[in-house]
Amino acid sequence: MFKHLILTKQKEENMNKISKLFLGILSSALLISPTFAGEMTVTGGATATYTTNGDDPSSGKTIGISNELDFTASGELDNGYTWTYQVQLDGATTANDDTKLVIGTDYGTIGLFNTEGGLSQELAHGVGAMGVGFDYISPSTFQAGYDVSSYSNIQYHLPAGILPFGAGVKVGYAPNMAATGQLSAKDSAAPADAGAGGSLEMINVTLAPIDGLSIGADAARTADQTGGTGLAEGEKGVSANIGAKYTMGQFTVGYTEGGYQPAIAAKTGGETVYYENQFLGVQFDVNDALSVSFNRDESQKNQRIAVAGAATAGTKTVTTMEQDSIQVAYTMGGATLGLTQVEVDNADYTVGKKETQNVISLGISF
Questions:
Q1: Closest listed residue to residue 32, CA positions, set 82, 79, 100
Q2: Widest pairwise Cα distance in the chain
Q3: C-beta of residue 338 within 8 angstroms of C-beta of residue 313
Q4: Element (H or E) spanning 207, and its range?
Q5: What is the pLDDT of residues 277-300, one digit of tens each?
Q6: Which of 62, 263, 285, 323 places its Cα 20 to 30 Å from the Cα of 239?
Q7: In 10 A of CB 249, how many CB atoms?
Q8: pLDDT of the residue at 92
Q9: Which domains does the chain have, with CATH numbers?
């Protein structure tokens, strides 16, 4: 399966053409002035949790309160084009987090994102009473592939409704993968070797062919990898995901499959690592207030090591990390009471390592 992740030369040429197209649209949109007065709104939520970690129920007990605030401004240009600016305040600090500036045109949407604008479809199965499987909570780290939202990036989205079956297409480009922090206007990232911070290209395709069914896929690859002084050129990184979710009445089922091979900055020893993932979720909505769900997330780490001196063959190790999670959510107006239990085998791709986590939460939206 993983061999199909390698993008063809034709796809590379198409990506270059699309990049030139949305850069041209962006340039024309930014030259237009003036704008009508915009509006600003503040939305967000607060969540309080009681969490226990580890096999011993008395260990790792913590109480936490998170905050998420979205400050959004929007308006319209004199030719009917729209614009939206958003900055988020969340996490444990008061620092500005994700920001974006989006221009809507008759020819599609142009977005400028600062660690925002995710295109990955690793969560296309979209099932979870409290959140999607491992993305909601996991004591371990899953390797699910690249996403331009980890960097400063630019995107072009095709206009809605021009493709059949409710299809949508988005492409994104991150020029510098070393620029992972927040950058203000006119700021520049510190110089970095391309081997450590190449560029990232990504495409996202979604479909809604029938009522209740949604399908999502993505593909990404790095570029500009170099080996540095005296080293061979490294390998480009690739990742891809495809998933679907189907809802019928009170039942929802979803499944996602994907693969990920991280980039190798320089060929020094021939070691290669890649991951193959399978994510499954089922959910039952008992009524408008109560939902229960089960997720099983599996990630297989494949590690190959080149043939050593005097040896006749290389070696390969395979480690499968598996996480099961049960979630219960009860909604009362604008508040949601949640209970989540997680168990992980071979946690963090370490054979024999087990982790557990239990979370009771109260979330309020405003």
A1: 79
A2: 73
A3: no
A4: strand 199-207
A5: 999 999 999 999 999 999 999 999
A6: 323
A7: 8
A8: 54
A9: 2-365 (2.40.160.10)
